[in-house]
Specification:
Shape: globular
Number of strands: 10
CATH superfamily of the largest domain: P-loop containing nucleotide triphosphate hydrolases
Bound molecules: adenosine-5'-triphosphate
CATH class of the largest domain: Alpha Beta
CATH architecture of the largest domain: 3-Layer(aba) Sandwich
Oligomer: single chain
Largest sheet: 6 strands, mixed
CATH topology of the largest domain: Rossmann fold
Structural class: alpha/beta
Number of domains: 2
Strand content: 25-35%
Helix content: 25-40%
């Protein structure tokens, strides 16, 4: 579905990704893993078109998309939940969700009732300000907002960061349900190996801007973790 080949990009004159390769299969959850600062968020931002592709090719269902701006990628079916969630604190929960519909080009987006099948808590707090929600509630809100664009691929940057353990389980069950019931493909950056193992079908490990290991999640054994993920 999404294929990234030989991606080189960075910030200003600093190269961060030095030829990264990654694929997300249709209907699969792929976890992008790696130590702090190796370039995981940079991969997601380049996939969304928030950073230019300096070298390499990004393909969506076989078609090159490297030159497309972010809003065109959103219309193709990319949904993005950024690190830190980026909820608008002064707007209500309902307004924050509807913004996801504007982003995909709708003039007066209505929230489909079935969205709340996945987020019953949000339904009870539609009039509350986004800034008054807990981290876990904001994460649900950010996912709901991304779903308003009816994505085929959901890209999540550390969805469990700063979230209480009981809500981590909730986020996992929501993402798993969206994957199983709606066939949504998922690319997610994660620091918690246990979470990645439970949620992912495949993994890719990044180190210093390059992919150093990838495969099916069952093959992510302790030797791979020791070599590439534990702090040495
Ligand atoms: N806006 C920016 N301007 C300049 N350098 C940046 C910027 N954002 C990130 N970097 C640098 O790019 C490198 C990769 O950062 P990135 O956020 O992609 O890593 P990461 O693997 O997602 O890290 P973390 O797990 O800490 O979120 C780091 O050295 C970081 O300092």
């Amino acid at each position: 579905m999404l294929d990234i080949e030989g991606l080189v990009t960075g910030y200003g004159s600093t190269t961060v990704l030095r030829g990264a390769d990654l694929s997300v299969g249709r209907g699969e959850v792929t976890c992008l893993l790696g130590r702090n600062g190796v370039g995981k968020t940079t991969v997601l931002r380049a996939a969304m078109g928030l950073l230019p592709t300096w070298k390499g090719v990004l393909r969506w269902e076989g078609t090159p998309i490297s030159a497309l701006p972010t809003h065109r990628r959103a219309r193709l079916g990319f949904g993005f939940v950024p690190q830190g969630r980026e909820i608008l604190p002064q707007l209500t929960v309902e307004e924050n969700i509807r913004i996801g519909g504007f982003a995909s080009g709708e003039r007066d987006p209505e929230i489909p009732p079935e969205l709340f099948d996945y987020f019953p808590d949000l339904k009870k707090m539609l009039r509350r300000r986004g800034g008054n929600l807990s981290g876990g509630q904001q994460q649900q809100l950010a996912i709901a907002r991304a779903l308003m664009g009816r994505p085929k691929l959901l890209i999540l940057d550390e969805p469990t960061e700063g979230i209480q353990p009981n809500l981590v389980a909730l986020i996992r069950s929501v993402v798993t349900a969206l994957n199983r019931e709606r066939g949504l493909s998922v690319l997610l950056v994660e620091q918690k190996i246990g979470f990645a193992r439970k949620i992912g079908h495949a993994y890719t490990i990044l180190d210093r801007g390059q992919v150093v290991a990838d495969g099916r999640m069952e093959s992510l054994d302790d030797s791979v973790i020791r070599a590439h993920l534990e702090v040495s």
